[in-house]
Amino acid sequence: MDGDSLYSIGELARRTGLTVKTVRRYSDHGIVAPARRTAAGHRRYGPDAVARLALVRTLRELGLGLAAIRSVVDRELALGDVAARHAAALEAQIGALRLRRALLTAVARRRPTCEEFEEMEHMHRLARLSLAERRRLVDDFLQAVFDGLEDGPGHAAARRSMTPELPDDPTDEQVGAWVELAELSLDPGFRSGLRRGVADHAAARQPGGTVLPRPDAVAIVREHAQAAVRSGIVPDSPEAGPVVAALTAHCARAFGRPDDAGLQRWLLRRLSAVNEPRRDRYLELLAVVNGWPAPERVAPVVQWSVTALRARAAAG
Fold first, then answer.
1. Is the dihedral of CA 135, 141, 144, 149 positive or negative?
2. What pLDDT is recorded for position 150?
3. Long-range CB contacts for residues 59-62, cutoff 8 Å, separation at least 24
4. Would residue 84 count as lying in a domain?
5. Which residues contact 276 (CB under 8 A, 6 or more apart)?
6. Which pLDDT does position 47 carry in this prediction?
7. pTM of this prediction exceeds 0.90
8. In which element (H, E) is residue 79 found?
9. CA nearest to 54, candidates 78, 22, 29
10. Do 223 and 251 form a contact (C-beta atoms < 8 A)?
11. DSSP per residue, 187-240
12. Number of domains into which the chain is organized
């Protein structure tokens, strides 16, 4: 090769836009080899080094390591295969970064003190759980709520409706919701509160597990009290009287009981058993994680009805 067609490191750096130090480093790693050396030992590179270094610069900007780049430029590995492997690695890194960002966003929202760092570490562990670990956590929660009670189609449907499924490519909002949901599901008080509601619902079954052809008490309460809550009617006010009367009359018909003080006490027990305000939060978080429409909150309606029924019972 004619010496006029060869480039020094400085000339090669100018032609490629790289620094002399970078070209020398690539040369030292065998990524671009000199065509020959001068008598003084200076490296000289052929025209093909320009194209080779242009490819190297592109691959470096995409984040590939020097070992992988050398395999590509030496044609030991196909560029497509290396790109696919690197894309998969980047996807895993993006997932990890998304988890970290969601966690930091949740921490920033809470503004924890130094004393709450242990809680932050707990949140971090929850955010980084694998799919199998997430499923074990959810299964443990649902077992604590449902197991040991009379089983049936209703319970199976309820379990499914309360199961979070974080997608493979979750948004920051979904990751943040998962962390809060996981924390909530681990709370013993929340678990026992939900279990009381499920156990009370199971008590409405006939012996043998046959489901009674009756609406749920909460559904009846929602039908009658929802408008009152939205209208701002105070539950222990005279205006609440007709609402409570219609509610208890509906329950009397639905459950085959007299519309009397005994029905009111029974209904109060039912509503008190399901009056777990954090249940609404769980369902809100569940909807975010699963990509479902936001549910309507039940706690305000139940609490309104409990207060109204107690006021009516006290009034005689």
1. negative
2. 61
3. 62/86
4. no
5. 190, 193, 194, 196, 197, 299
6. 86
7. no
8. helix 79-110
9. 22
10. no
11. -HHHHHHHHHHHHHHHTTSPTTSPPPSS--HHHHHHHHHHHHHHHT--TTSGGG
12. 2
Q: Are residues 181 and 242 in the same domain?
A: yes
Same structural domain, 272 and 141: yes
Token pair 């962390």 is found at: 179
In which residue are the tokens 């058993």 written? Answer: 273
Task: Point out the domain boundary residue: 77, 95, 116.
Answer: 77
Residue 197 tokens read as 């509601």
- Residue 7 DSSP symbol: B
With a cut of 70, which residues of the chain have pLDDT below it? 1-4, 77, 99, 102-104, 106-124, 127, 150-154, 201-215, 316
**Residue 35 belongs to what domain range?**
3-77
- Give me the pLDDT at residue 122, please: 66
User: Residue 36: in which H helix or E strand, if any?
Assistant: strand 36-37
Q: Are residues 12 and 151 in the same domain?
A: no
For residues 163 and 107, the answer to whether their CB atoms sit within 8 Å is: no
| Residue 253 forms part of a structural domain | yes
Q: Is 283 domain-assigned?
A: yes
Question: What's the CATH number where 68 sits?
Answer: 1.10.1660.10
17 secondary structure, DSSP code: T
Shared-domain flag, residues 72 and 134 = no
Question: In sequence order, what are the beta bridge partners of 37?
Answer: 43
- Cβ pair 211, 154 in contact under 8 A: yes
Q: Are residues 274 and 154 in the same domain?
A: yes
Q: Decide if 82 is inside a domain.
A: no
- Is residue 251 within 8 A of residue 282, CB to CB? The reply is no
Residue 44, beta-bridge partner list? 36
Q: Are residues 152 and 73 in the same domain?
A: no
Distance in angstroms (rounded) separating the CA atoms of residues 314 and 265: 11
